[in-house]
Every structure is written in structure tokens, then in C-alpha cells.
Fold this sequence. Notes:
808 residues; 3 domains
Amino acid sequence: MxxxxxQVTTLALPVSSGESTSNMSDLLKKYIYHxxxxxxxxxxxxxxxxxxxxxxxxxxxxFATLEFKAPTASSASLTVNQSTTEQQxxxxxxxxxxxxxxxxxxxxxxVYEVVNQLQLWVSYTQKKGFTTVDLYKExxxxxxxxxxxxxxxxxxxxxxVTIKDRNSFICKDANQNExxxxxxxxxxxxxxxxELKPTANFDNFIGxxxxxxxxxxxxxxxGYQSGIKVALENKDAPFVNxxxxxxxxxxxxxxxxxxxxxxxxxxxxxKNKLSQRTLKFIEFRLDSLKIQLDSVEVLIENYKNGHNIxxxxxxxxxxxxxxxxxxxxxxxxxxxxxxxxxLEKYLNSSNNSERLPAASALLTDxxxxxxxxxxxxLQLERDQLIATMPAANPMVVSIDKQINTVRGEFKDKxxxxxxxxxxxxKQLSSFTTNIQTTLKMVPGQDRQFASLQRIQVTKENIYKxxxxxxxxxxxxxxxxxxxxxxxxxxxxxxxxxxxxxxxxALSAIFALAFGAGLLYMRDSLNDLITSRKQIENEVxxxxxxxxxxxxxxxxxxxxxxxxxxxxxxxxxxxxxxNLFHLHDxxxxxxxxxxxxxxxxxGKSFVSSNLAITLAYASxxxxxxxxxxxxxxxxxxxxxxxxxxxxSNYLNEELSDLEQLIRxxxxxxxxxxxxxxxxxxxxxxxEKDKLDxxxxxxxxxxDDIIIDSPPIHLVTDALIIARVADxxxxxxxxxxxxxxxxxxxxGINETSRLPKLTIVFNGVKxxxxxxxxxxxxxxxxxxxxxxxxxxxxxxxSVLGYLKEFGSRF
Length: 808
């Protein structure tokens, strides 16, 4: 059995794989078949697009350009060493950060100001047919609030104002409350007190109805803010593009022009405000620094007075020079004292022969030199006398007396000079000590004075810097101009939306998507088998023997000898060929069992027509009507149901086989009817009489076709399977439920039906997995074997839609 099943699969596969296409091709065929659905969808969507274009007001793009003249953050030549404080103190001259300015331009603050300036929170429209015309700047009336009561509803307030004459009007609110009023007179309502004033266009709208919508300015500004785009296209070029879109070009231009005007005014005001704050700060700091400078200068003055300082460096230099001179004078005094000490030693000696020290050249006193010279001469004269005469010689004695006299005068003179030198030395030493003490104090004084002077210089430099900046900022403030200017005023471009070509193209695309989505939804919600691919994906190792097209006819016999009236006749011939391979023999006595899941799947139709094709192939064939509960074979061939049959034979009411066999009217094809409907068909089928009957028929017929009951309802087919060689399980498109495939898998896994294969019946165009059967135009039929199915529509799209809806 397993070997035969392997052969079945091998033989059946070429039928499907040879004529199958890719998934995309299958999907395309499916969509092509449903072309009426897509045609209707396209027609509906194009009609909708047409009316959409008729009632939709066009939207125009609005453009404007602003240029920044001041250095921008990306192009300003700022050096690394430039002081940040200096930039902050000169706000007019600091670089413009374009990204920040863009945020300012599209800020809620400015847009809200534009909305209030142009009164965009109130709109005026007029109905003209199916369209609504915006009356911006053409409105005959103007709404003005006198007093507003709280917040306006988020949906806004709608007023239907009908102008009766030049003085009065009738107003209806959203609740159809009617109010009669006069122009320029206050009217009270739930959202406030207001009035309507006529405009210059008033005379053209007498008798007309104007729709006035009053909305919350906050919400309106939010809407316009989201629609305004400000962008820097090129960072190297300081040009900013402003864009928006509007159904009324003039309104869009007014919005951008007002926005740019407000921005320029805001920029000037902001710059002036910063300049004023800067000037005020600088003036405050100048006053504070002036007081601090005065305080520091007073401290310096007091310090100089307290330390008798005019110029520390000059005075210190003078003290150093005085000290040097004083030290020099002191040294000279020391030298003179040394000379005086040597002379004193000589003068204190009593020996006149002792020589006088050589010091005449070092003596600075003019009165001492003559005495020194006189004494030196007397000593020289005595030395000459002593050399020739004794010391007692009167001449020597006379010279000694003179020497003693001169020595006495010289000694007195020396003592006076010594006393004077000692006094001078004492004075010089005392003065030197004072000078040196003063010089030791100079570094400390210099440090303290430098500290005060440093504070003074720092304060003075800051004061000078702020004074200079004050003049610069004041000068620029007096002549301040905006950093930007309008290059292009707001102007409208070509219609942005709707563009007819795009609308029609999109509608066609949406129509196709809608049709495809509808098909997908139908298939998703459908729990019936719709394609061969579903069967192949769900069943395990059960080949599909063939596909049979759906026939929109009441006739059960669609196969005729020669060229069939129905194209499905050729498909039965293909099925016959596949059956030959399935049996793997052309010998007589082949038993083929037909069954299905439930009633109505075409089991009797398939078995009847396949038997006819076998008879036309000169194979002696017999059909056994073994659905003992609801027989249909006899009816299919137009035979009477009141005839003895299988049930009578199995119940042993008769034993002559010739009494059972009935001619079908087709040469080579006989039928054994069901016979009497008995209450115990299952028990009858289990009898050995069935085996005997089959054995007798095998000897007389080439093919025995058994039409059995649905296998999911009764067990008759499983009982009959013991006498069958092959089993053909009929699955009908859009009729058999998907869960029946699980039941079929269970039957196959238990091998309860021999050589189980599937016949896919009732395949409609667009539903078959492979389009099995194309190419029958060669036999004189339509190029599409689904012709019998499409005849139902007869070219009528309405007929197709009716059929399409029935398949949901």
C-alpha cells in the first residue's frame, strides 16, 4: 500500500507543478477575475474625487524671505581672546544667532499677536451651492466684542446672520435660537456682548446669509503656528524663508507680512530694551567706581602724608646717595684720626732724636701743616748738629728748646683737631644709623603703597572701560536699526492642493487598494476553502487528482461524446487520465470510491460524469448508487427511483445480478440503483454480500464507480472502503469548510481510505490556485474555461456584485 501511495504522489505532482504559476501570478489572476469590483471601486472613487475637487477650496502656498544684515553666529569673526563681558556690554553689536531668531519668528507670542491684529479668530463665510466661500476682506459685516464672558467654546461659536436691510439683521446660533438686531448695537449672548458693523461691501450682500464663526484666539493661533514654517536654507547665506498655506491667498500674505513686521518691531524693541538695561547698568557701575576711586585716592594721600612720601623711588635713591656720602666722610674722619694718633704718639715721646712720622701729605688742616714743616726742619737741623758736636753743645741745646716749644704748640693743635674729628665721627655714625633705618623701611612702604596703587589702577581701568562702553552703547542706541530686513514680501505660488491629476491618481490608487482590501477581508472572514493552495498547505501527503470548474447549470451530466458543450468535460477527461495513473493499471475490475465531507460538495456529480468519460474511453463501467440514505445517481441519469437495487440485494430480497443492473442510456455505462431506503444501511454494508457483489462486478466491468455517502456524517464510506482500490475525496470551493481538512488528515493518517486523493470541485475564476484548465480554445471553447461561470454575469457588473456579496 505504501509503495502504491508513493506512486500516486509522484504521478499526481506533475499535474499541479507543470501548470502552476507563482504566487504573484495567482494573485494577479485572482484580481483580474474580479475586475468588475475594481471598475466599480474606481468609478466610485473617481466620482468622489470629482465632487471633492468641486467642493474643495484650493490651498495656495505663501512664501516670504527675510535677510539678516548683522553678523550671524556662523559668520561673525569673533576671536578667541575677545572678552565675553565686552560682548555682553555691547548687545547691539553682538552676533545674531539665526536659529534663535527662527524660534522667535514662529513663537506663539508673535503668532497670537498676528491673529489679534488681523482678527483671524473670527471668520466670515457664505454658502454657495455645495461650496463654502471664505469672505476674508470681502465680508459685508464685522464682528466686534464689547465684553467677553469667560472662555469661548473649543468648538467655537457659530452665528448665521441674515442681512434684512441696511439697518437690521436676523441671527441664529448653533441651537437655532433666533435673535433680531440692528447693526452697531450691542447684543448679549452666552459668550459675551458683541455688535455687528457694516463694512464697505455691505450693499452687495443685502438679503444674504453670512456664517460668522467666533473662536478662541489661543486655539486659532495654535493652528496658524503649526502651519507657519521658518527655515534657514543655507547656513552660509543669512536668508530665512517663511512659508505657509491658505485657501485665501491674501490672508496668507497678510499673515506672513504681519509676522515679519511684528518680528522686526520686536527685534528693535528687544535691542533697545537691552541697550537701556546695559546703559543703566554701566551708569550704576560708573557711579559706584567713582566713589571707590575717591576712597582709594584719599587712602593714598593719607599714606603719603603719614610717611612723608612724595616719590618712594626717588626718595629711596636720595637716601642711598646720602648714605654713601656719609660713609665716605666717616672713612675720611677715621683716616685723620689714625694720623692724629700717630702724631700724638710722637709728641708724647721725650726723645728729640725720634723722627717725626711722614704724614704731612695726609693732613687736611691747613694750620697744622706749617707746624709740621717747622718741626721737621728743626729735627733735621739738630740731626746735622749732632753729627759734628755733642748734645751738650749750646747750639744743640738751643735747637732742643726750639723743638720742645714747637712740639708743645703742635701737640695742643693735634688735641684740638682730634676732639673735632671725634665729634664729627660721632655725628656721622649717628646719621648713618638713621639713614640705614630709613632705607630698611622703604620695601615695606613700597609694598603698602603698591597695594593701594594697584587698587587705584584697577578701579581706574574699569572706570575708563565702562566710560568708553557707555559712550559706544549710547551712540549706537541713538542710531539703532534692525539686524534684518524683508527681501521678498509675502507672495502666493501656484495651487498647492488639490491638484486634479494627483487627486484622480490617488483616488484610482485608493480604489484599487479598497478593492484589494475588500477581497482580502472577504477571504479573511471566509472559513470556506477558496483555493487549491489552501488544500495543499493544510493536508498532509494527499495529492490533488484534478480540478473541476464551477458550472452554472441545473444539468448534472455535462460530459458528452466528442466536443462537450461544457468546457469542464475536458477536465473530466484529464481526471480520467490521472485516474489511470492512480490505479497504476488498465486491467478490468478497478474499484473507485467517491466520498466527501458533507452533502452538496458534488460527489454524485463528479462520479457520474467521470463514469461517462470512462465509458467514452471504451471502458465498460458501472456506477453503484451506494448512498443508501440520499441517492442521486438515478436522478442524474433521469432514471426512476422505484427500482430494486443494492439495498434489496444486500438484504437478500433478490439474488439475480441481472435484475439490479440498469442501462444508463450511454453505451458502456450501467447503473445499479440504491433500491429501497432501509433503516439499517450501515449494517447492510457490513455484510459479505457486498464483497460478493463487487467480485461479480469485477469480472464483468473494467471500472466500478462507487458513490458513497458523506464520510463526516455517516460511516458508510469507511465500511465500503474495504472493497475499493482507490478513494476520491471531493472538496468543493466556497462550500467545504476549512476545518474539514483536519478531519481529512485524520482519515489519511489512519489509512482508512485506500489510495486517498482529492478532487477540487466547483472552482470559480479567481479562486483556483493555479487556473487549471487554460487553453481549451483549441477545442473550440472560449479561451477561459470558466466561461460557463462568467455567463452568469452576462457582462453585467450588477450581476457580479450580487454574486460577490453572496460570497461574504
